[in-house]
Give the backbone structure.
Amino acid sequence: MTALTLSTAALPGLRADAIVIGVAKGTASAAGGPVVVPGAEAVDKAYDGRLTGVLETLGASGAEGEVTKLPAPTGFKTPLVVAVGLGTQPEKDAAPDTEALRRAAGVAARALSGSKKAVFALPMTDAADAGAVAEGALLGAYSFDAYKNTSDNGGKGRKKARKAPLAEVVLAGVPSRDKAFKAAVARATTVAEELNRARDLVNTPPNDLDPEAFAAVAQAAAKEHGIKVQVLDEKALAKGGHGGILGVGAGSASGPRLVKLSYTSAKAKKHLAFVGKGITYDSGGISLKPAGHNETMKCDMSGAAAVFAAVVAAARLGLAVNVTGWLALAENMPSGSATRPGDVLRMYSGKTVEVLNTDAEGRLVLADALWAASEEEPDAIVDVATLTGAMVLALGNRTFGIMANDDTFRAAVLEAAEEAGEPAWPMPLPEHLRKGMDSATADIANMGERMGGGLVAGLFLREFVGEGITWAHLDIAGPAFNEGGPFGYTPKGGTGSAVRTLVRLAEQTAAGELG
């Protein structure tokens, strides 16, 4: 991963491949032109105060995500200046918000791929700003190269080297001995490392990441970071009566797993349980997905990846809260042994479910894991899943939905997401939609009304949360996997959606900010 260091040295004397500065889009009163933000004073001075004019001549406007490159001024040991757009400045002399800094740093890091070292001179007036720039740069520099050769043509014929990620980020003007700044940057590094680990898992091809392999990754990380781990294989799942997970995994040659990760703190007063959907590949089962809908289904374990990363991050940060992660892992495949539409599964809770559509499998594995999590009576449960296409239709590709059985907790999860910089939106659980899942054969069906399908899925999950336990459901089907071009600090492919929200929720709980 990209290295990160702090420096208080003057910009002209720093040796690097580039210096990154920020440019905002001016307000209407400033004629809408580019505005150089704090951090770039030394560069502007070396340009005799004409940096804004130079940028404007080069076509810079300060729009979010815009990158403008220009030669460094005379007297600098760095040959290049990279001006990155922060978006519209809300008012004169107003500091950019942390998310704008995070995105700008990500854009700059990606634009500097192939470089060995870059100095980031973005505005960092406090520790939160420094943490945002560090996090954005480390996330923006991410690249998944495990399956690529060192040349762009598979190593045959004429070779052309691929650009490696930016190797080192230097945060300029950040005091390395200041405890607050040092802590913020250390936190950002930990969160970014674990989020990038989640991205790696999501991007790994399903032939190399089946449930058993995912469980092995979790076991190795647990051993490294002092986390207790328990893995239930097919025999243990059958003995325990986990009919949902077994039913989904029945058609695959790769057996399902239920992984429990337990981080405990001696200072903890609260206990959070995170539950993640981990379908390592989703063909739809007997209800096979149509062509064009299964090529990216390696990402259907993004919820489990997020939960795994969040638990490890909580352990590495030493948060004063107990966090238990449940990874419900299975591969959904069609075969002679696969669950059929019309079959009835007896879940771990004892309830029976009529399976009307085997492609509504995520809710089945989550149901077993939610009930297992409920048995420990945590203060709250949050599940994360790429659950429904309906949520993508409702909220698009960059926003996840939040449902809950408690309005106050739903608001708290939304606040955590907003603080973390993850777009989210509160969604209801309309009681009238529950009737659509009534079954003449079983206690409940796994399908209900087509309209409002994302909400129906949330209502199904609610049935498997223990009585009196506060619960929230995050449907990350939209933002979990980016099929378009990269933006901000978000790459193409696996994004690590919800990791930062879960970590922030754990931090708030540890600090006593949640009831």
Observations:
- The longest helix spans residues 179-203.
- The chain is about 30% helix and 20% strand.
